[in-house]
Amino acid sequence: MLLSCTSGLLDVHAQSASKQIRGIVLDTASVGLRGVNIRLTSSSDTLLTTSDQYGLYQFKNVGGDQIRISYSMLGHQIVTKTLSNSESSSFIVIPNVKLTPQNSLIEGISVVKVIPVVYGDDTIQYNMDAFKFRPHSLLEEALKQLPGIQVSRDGTVYAQGKRVSSVMVDGKKFFGGDVATATKNLPANFVKKIQVINYFGDYATERGIRTEDPEKVINIVLNEDSKQITFGQLTAGVGTSDRYIGSVGVNRFNDGQEFSVIGSINNTNTSLFSFGSPSGVGEREKSLFDANDFVDPTDGLNNINSLGFNFSDNLAENTVLSTSYSFANKRNVTTGNSFLRSDYEMNKISNEESYRTMSDDYFHRLTAEFKHRFKNNDILEIKPVFSYNSVYFGNLRERLITNNRITNDGVYRDTSNQKNPNLDVNMLYARSFKKPGRKLVANLTLNFNSQRRLEDVVDAYSTVDSSQAPPRLTKFDQHYYIQQTSGTDGVKASVSFVEPFTESSFMELFYDYELTDMTAVRRVEDKLKTAEFDQFFYVDSLGVSYDYRFQSSRVGLNYQYIPNKTFRSNIGFAVQPLTLNGYLPREDMYYKYDNVNLVPSAGFKWRINDELDWSVDYVGKNNQPNFLHIIPIRDNSNSQNIVVGNPELKAEFSNRINTTLRKFITKRSQYFETNFAFNKVLNKIVSDKTALNTSTIQQTTFRNADGYYDLKWYFLFNTPLFNESLQLDLVGNTDYYNNISFINEERNKTQQFIYSQSVQVRYTWSDYFESLFNTSYLLNNARYTWPYNNEITAHSLLMSGATKGYISDYVTLGAEVSQRFNSGYESSFMNNNPTILNAYLEVSFLPNKQGLLRFQGFDLLDQNKNMGTYSEYIGNDLYEARNNRLGRYFMVTFNMRLQKYPKKK
Question: Mind listing the domains of the chain with CATH numbers?
Answer without folding.
Answer: 19-99 (2.60.40.1120), 117-250+265-290 (2.170.130), 301-465+488-497+509-900 (2.40.170)
